[in-house]
Structure formats: structure tokens, C-alpha cells
Amino acid sequence: MKNLSKAVEILRAGGLVAFPTETVYGLGADAKNPAAVAKIFSVKGRPADHPVIVHLAAFSELSEWVVDDISFDAKKLAAAFWPGPLTLIFKKNPGISALLTGGQDTIGIRIPHHPVALELLREFGGGLAAPSANRFGHISPTTAAAVYEELGDSVDLILEGGQCEVGLESTILDVSSDVISILRPGMIGAKQIEKILGKNISLKQKKSPRVSGSLESHYAPRTKTILLSADEIKNYLSREKKLVVIAISEMKLSDVEYFQMSSSPEKYAHDLYFILREFDKKNFDEIIIEKVPDFVEWDAVRDRLQRAAG
Q1: How confident is the model over 217-275, as pLDDT tens digits?
Q2: What's the chain's Rg over C-alpha atoms?
Q3: Which of 121, 290, 301, 309 could connect to 225 by a Cys-Cys bridge, CB 3.0–4.6 Å?
Q4: 4-203 and 224-308 share one fold
Q5: Residue 90 has pLDDT above 90, yes or no
Q6: What does the angle CA 52 – CA 134 – CA 247 come to, to the nearest 5 degrees?
Q7: Domain boundary assignment for the chain
Q8: Distance between CA 151 and CA 281 in Å, rounded?
Q9: pLDDT tens across 43-87, in order?
Q10: What is the 3-state secondary structure (H, E, C) of the chain?
């Protein structure tokens, strides 16, 4: 890739490079350069106590970032799902900057599964702090064009990598204690994780580490967004507002724009942020979204929709 060497130069000089992953586009900076990491927070408008995920090229690099006693369960999960859309939360090494961790003693690590991201990480030769490449709390970008819409020239370089394959942020799993728990659902679900571990895992605990994307309102359009059942949508539409309805159900609606989503949770996840971003540009009074099925396969999508309407 012609821009790859330029991207590496920018990162080594303390600049910002947006790059594609299989989940969403990330806003990358040298994770060992506190001034560069601080730029991420400034450009995004991200609170200082909101930790960022560090992306690596290989499991062998993990020892630079986390304490030595990596559990057998963590190793099994890494072997099964890395590279891939899973972030693991470990106890951090003492020398790791508090900027990365939001002042906590834990750190999130992921090896992304995207050829551009992996090539960039290998060429850079170190960890990249890379939250989603958008304004804090807004819809995560799944195309390079969406990154530019969000951040414009405040990013030194945007690497093109097409539309993201998964379309939702990674599953975040806490492996920093004896109780393994999901802190953010993603398209790697509890059933897949439990199959690898051979045991049940927990949901988020009261004392769990703070992680990316855990606020009540997050991944949100600027347009007011409301979640309703199919029946509630029909009753709601009598109001005199410019509305768009995004639904799985086939609906015959008049005087509103309507978009039918896939009934596959994987395809729905892939399309969601792209569709939300397109409708967010069109000056609707409200975006109405049909609630998705109450099945575990839909946990990640349901989580993002609830936060978008938060």
C-alpha cells in the first residue's frame, strides 16, 4: 500500500492515522507516546477517564503491555479469536501510561483481523492506541469517508480499507481476575466464548474495569433516536414529524421514509452504522428503530441500539 510508509512516518512522529479494522475504523497513535495519545482525546473530545484499546500485530508483543501471569483461559481465548473482534482486559505493566487506561490498573488489548491494520502494525513495530475514529459518543465510522466526515483534517492520514466487515465494535472480555466477564457485547458472543473455555462466563460486575463504549448514551446519531416495537411504531406515526423508520419487519407506512434491515444479526450489524449515518444527514426530526429480537445472537446489536437511543 502506497500510503503505508507515510502512515508509519506520521505515527513515529507523534501524529494520528485513521485505519480500517474488521470492526470499525480506528484513530491510531503511538501507544507509547503520551503526547500522541493525548491528541486522540483532544480530537475526539474524549473524557480522560475513558480508556482506549491498544492494538498489536502479534500475541508475542503482549508481554510489553501486561503483567507476566497471563491466565490459561486468556491464552485459550487469544488462540481461538485473535486476530479478530475480541478485546481482552489484562492487568497492565506498571510502566504503562495512565492515559491509555483511564487511570486504572488494567489495559485492553486486541489484535485486529484486517489486512491493512495488520500490515500497518507490523510495519510500525509497536502498539497503537486506537479508539473509533469519530467524535466521542457519535456513530462509529465503518468507511474512510465517514472518518473524514467526522474528523476532517484533524487526522494526519486516513488509510482506505473499504467498508468494515463486522461493522460493530469488538467484544470486550475481562480476564484480569478469576471471574471472566463480558464488559461490552460484540459479534463474538457468550456461547462462542463459553465453548472455548468449557465453562460459563459472567456479565459485567459492579467492580469491573471501565471500558470503551460503556456509557448509557453512545454510538448515537445527532438526530433523536427512539426504539419501539412494531405495534408501537404504527401507533407513534400519527405525530406530525418528519420521521424515518428502520425496521426488520415489513411495514406498509405512508408519509414516512422506511428502510427494511436484514433479519440476520450479522448482516444487520454490518449495515447498522452506515445506515444510521446516512439517515442522520437527512434532517429528520426523529429516527425510529424497531426493537430487535430478544435472542442472544442479537445482544451486540441490541446493546448498540439501546445506547444510540440513550
Answers
A1: 778 899 999 999 999 998 888 668 899 999 999 998 888 899 999 999 999 999 999 99
A2: 19
A3: 309
A4: no
A5: yes
A6: 110
A7: 4-203, 224-308
A8: 15
A9: 999 999 999 999 999 999 999 999 988 999 999 999 999 999 999
A10: CCCHHHHHHHHHCCCCEEECCCCCCEEEEECCCHHHHHHHHHHHCCCCCCCCEEECCCHHHHHHCECCCCCHHHHHHHHHHCCCCEEEEEEECCCCCHHHHCCCCEEEEECCCCHHHHHHHHHHCCCEECCECCCCCECCCCCHHHHHHHHHHHCCEECCCCCCCCCCCCEEEECCCCCCEEEECCCCCHHHHHHHHCCCCEECCCCCCCCCCCCCCCCECCCEEEEECHHHHHHHCCCCCCEEEEECCCCCCCCCEEEECCCCHHHHHHHHHHHHHHHHCCCCCEEEEECCCCCHHHHHHHHHHHHHCC
Whether the pLDDT of residue 213 is over 80: the answer is no
Cell of 296: 442472544
Mean model confidence pLDDT for the chain: 94
Task: Give how far Cα 141 sits from Cα of 20, 65, 284, Å.
Answer: 9, 27, 20
The three cell numbers of residue 34 are 503520551
Fold of 224-308: Rossmann fold (3.40.50)
What letter represents residue 92's amino acid?
A: K
For the chain, how many residues are written? 310
- What confidence score (pLDDT) does residue 285 get? 94
Query: Contact, 259 vs 280, CB < 8 A?
Result: no
Which residue in this structure is represented by grid cell 481461538?
80
Separation of alpha carbons 51 and 213, rounded Å: 10
Q: Please, are residues 51 and 190 in contact by the beta-carbon 8 Å criterion?
A: no
Domain 4-203, CATH? 3.90.870.10
